[in-house]
Amino acid sequence: xxxxxxxxxxxxxxxxxxxxxxxxxxxxxxxxxxxxxxxxxxxxxxxxxxxxxxxxxxxxxxxxxxxxxxxxxxxxxxxxxxxxxxxxxxxxxxxxxxxxxxxxxxxxxxxxxxxxxxxxxxxxxx
Length: 126
What we know:
Blueprint: H1 3-10, H2 14-23, H3 41-55, H4 60-72, H5 77-115
Helix pairs in contact: 4-5
């Protein structure tokens, strides 16, 4: 698949795909004799993995290091696991923060819905 096809299939811009490859977020993609990127199934899995991790907020640096370790082979399995564990721990903290914020928003919305009812108290709790 060429970059345009991957871009449309994965809903990610061609510029972003080039950038991800250039900085090492995805391994180098094979090219045709004419120099056009030729994505295979493994490349598409890397695109999916990177897109998923970035959407979750995993750091670019962490992903670059993960891919570097992956390319070094099986001797880096422990280091890769540890790196992913650190990123997972960071995501769990972010998730807790988001859940706390979501609860506060729900409380505020409930307050405003209650204040729209007749005979309700108009003083907002902080």
